[in-house]
Amino acid sequence: MFSIGQLSKRTGVKIPTIRYYEQMGLIDAPERSEGNQRRYTADGLSRLSFIRHSRDLGFSIEDIKGLLSLSQHPERPCHDAHEIAVQHLGAVQDRIKKLRRLERELKRISKCDADSVSECAVIETLADHGLCETEH
Question: What's the confidence (pLDDT) of residue 109?
């Protein structure tokens, strides 16, 4: 059995976040000691580690709920889990494309060699989106 502090140290998840995950139903409410202290099992530790890794990979809370639900039914086919991962990958790839456009635009406007702010490409471009070369 683990206290919430021990669980936090082992997983790297902050205590308020652990409580939040309990409220969201991602982890079960733990047993309580006689002193009303939360006591987590090894399964709780494993589940929280799963959640932490999923969050590190950028999965949404809804996706994690779905993946956790699937993990409770090992006899089911992998297709649904695969589909969640593929959809998330597509969203990540879209964000990367957008970030690359943003990077190009920032590189372009940061090459300003004006002597004063009144002629500064950074300030002018931020004031007028029409001066941007890309949609970002």
Answer: 85
5-25 average pLDDT score: 94
Q: What is the pLDDT of residue 62?
A: 94
Paired tokens of 104: 């190009």
Count other Cβ atoms within 10 Å, centred on residue 33: 11
Domain edges within the chain = 4-60, 80-131
In this structure, which amino acid lies at residue 92?
Answer: V
Q: What is the pLDDT of residues 74-104, one digit of tens each?
A: 898 899 999 999 999 999 999 999 999 999 8
Nearest to 72 by CA among 50, 105, 91: 50
Q: What's the CATH fold of domain 4-60?
A: Multidrug-efflux Transporter Regulator; Chain: A; Domain 2 (1.10.1660)
- Distance from chain centroid for Cα 80: 20
Query: Using CA atoms, how far apart are residues 99 and 109, in angstroms rounded to an integer?
Result: 15
